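Hello,

Following up on my earlier ticket. Below are the two sequence lines again, exactly as submitted.
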Amino acid sequence: MSRAARRLVVIGADAAGMTAAGRVRGAAPDAEVVVLEMGRFTSYSACGIPYAVGGLVAGGVERLVARSPEEHRQRGVDVRLHHEATAIDTAAGTVEVLDQHAGQTYQLGYDQLMVATGGAPIRPSLPGIDLPFIQGVQTLGDAERLLALADQGCRRVVIVGGGYIGLEMAEAFIERGCSATIVDRGAQPLGLLDEDFGARIAAALRQRGIDVRTETTVEGFAPDRVLTDGGALAADLVVLGIGVRPRSELARAAGIELGVHDAIRVDDRQATSVDGVWSAGDCATAVHVVTGAQVHIALGTYANKHGRVAGLNIARRLADAAGAGDDVRSVPVAGTAVTKLCQLEIGLTGLRQATAIDAGLDAVTVTIEATTQAGYMPGARPMTVRMTAERGTGRLLGAQILGGPGAAKRIDVVATALAAGMTVADVAELDLGYAPPFSGVWDPVAVAAREATKEV
Amino acid sequence: MSRAARRLVVIGADAAGMTAAGRVRGAAPDAEVVVLEMGRFTSYSACGIPYAVGGLVAGGVERLVARSPEEHRQRGVDVRLHHEATAIDTAAGTVEVLDQHAGQTYQLGYDQLMVATGGAPIRPSLPGIDLPFIQGVQTLGDAERLLALADQGCRRVVIVGGGYIGLEMAEAFIERGCSATIVDRGAQPLGLLDEDFGARIAAALRQRGIDVRTETTVEGFAPDRVLTDGGALAADLVVLGIGVRPRSELARAAGIELGVHDAIRVDDRQATSVDGVWSAGDCATAVHVVTGAQVHIALGTYANKHGRVAGLNIARRLADAAGAGDDVRSVPVAGTAVTKLCQLEIGLTGLRQATAIDAGLDAVTVTIEATTQAGYMPGARPMTVRMTAERGTGRLLGAQILGGPGAAKRIDVVATALAAGMTVADVAELDLGYAPPFSGVWDPVAVAAREATKEV
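Thanks for your patience. The regenerated structure is below:
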């Protein structure tokens, strides 16, 4: 490789792309790093959008930016905002770029390419889906449009889909004084959890004044309403909360192999099927810690972790000391997620009974009721831990937690135990911290694990 | 062994003893189980005493009882309150018992003996130490006396020793409207933590109105004051908060071997040096997960866990199917502890730099500053994670956490990683839950671990 031609091009300036850029900047200081970004923001917290819309974030949308384009530039990263990558030629090693403001297209050569195009809200193919009052929640541009619509006085918000982001947005709009209706096809919202957990979340949302309509299918949109099989819902704003699909069209068109859910298939070094092309984040696959299967789970934590791995491996190829040492490898993911909805905390990781069976495992699941503090403490609130294990081996497979303040992050113990390949017997014996403001003397996670040991 | 002589005698009716009794009751239903208890309570939460004294526990001291003597009796456990074991004859297999109410002594034969005599507050040998206004915090009897003294109008409380329980009691008395002074010999209270952490806790206590006097030595007691090398302190009540020693005199007199800190030496089956005699809880030793060394750490979690193991192993010897299967074994302990003082949460587990060096390990320690929620959230509070690892191997050795709401229980991730023998590189990659109400996208524990990877 010629010394003159050491350039990394990054497509996409959010977590995965900018983390990779940052690692290359640090580990290969002589390399050129160019970042192409369609929008005008870099390195932001999309997960914070519901809180910004809900008015919780002083300073608004801009506060969600962890590092601005200017800060990246000061570190020597050539951030090009409103520059859209429109094609990749992996044979020539070039990206076709549209400078949106200039209206001009140019070719940009690369030695290494990081495809960090992220995810896009799933937009169902329904009549009226392109109406301007229908908004996804993915980028800070989306957040600005949502806030603008809210400030224009929209009062009736319909959320299509009861995923995390949809439910968080429903609560955010209630906080703003709007009405909020959630329409979900499933029996309960938050289909990632068991149905009875979803039902308890639906009850909490309803108690907060949110209209939760389950087993309801959206059939189309008119300028002022959402058409469903349960009748029309008046709406000033429609929020898409169905989920996220990988933005992999650019990669696909370039002949880069896709995997599950049409995400860009990467190995544990974050390398794609094409030499010199890397990917991470919401557009890329990962490997599940329990099943070993290829999965697509769009979580900001993975964008950061896997972007880092990609960056370190790219840097090895661009640095003066290229070739030294081994590639860094990503570790498998558990799908650990936490959220808080209407004072109810939710945590999940790994598999549950249904997904374990889907994976061909002989699974057993137990449920225990506990409290977030010692039962005699005034702040004690109910909390439920449901734990799934493999019959015969006792191997821990996953857990779901639902409860009051302090409940959700206990899922991290389960996530750690999954990474270690522990059995439920191991988990039952963990030396977890105890004091009355935090739990009973047997931590709820350990209690669930103990219960599971009786069933496996 | 003759079928007529299958009796377990348990000395001490708190967590370790009653957990063992309960396991034997369940697994060896034909065995006789007799529990000897000096006081009048069974199975209570000593850790809840500060909260009961502080007036937080509706129902008072009685609410701290997890299971009453009557409930145990209904399950077929012969609980004898105000019966004090005064001697053990391991050759004869008998316990000498003083029936305090009858004033009579009798001999009670056993086939298996569980010594669960617990701990006692350390009482320094100082002039006036036996004055009635000096009170430990160990049993519910102590709690009753503390509340009675408080109700009699004591206004000036001096706490001798800045351990957990002492600090919690200081806050409790402030809650009751008393004044509280903590006297500690060390540079800072909570000597289990690094000094700068102790200093931050001292500052929080002082801000709450507690008079914290460090590097001050108590020299004696007069009926209305505590004499120190920094002058006399007026006092209506003195609380001992120096720590807990094992109550092992009875075992020692019976020729049962003692170990570190004069705790009853047990193996990982909770067996003592004498066949048929078992022990667990505050009176017994344990093994440290990092060092493998014998330790004495008085924590209610161990009383429960190790009491269970003792009970299962005793049951094997008393049940009809005696001899089947293997003995159950306790797992090593990490010394995980959490508490909350004046809105400041504290967690620790494993070793810190000083104790790692004492253990002969080549250790490095890093400290990171983070927030309890995403930085842009209104509830975000500072939190510090300090992590210690072994140089060369990168093996995780322990951590200390200090911060706002939600900080302390994150120590459980470290405790779980210690049990799994993880390196800090492993911890840095854990799939921990993220959402803005719970942390930044990189969990503070993972951030500390990543930082540690650079130093090991």
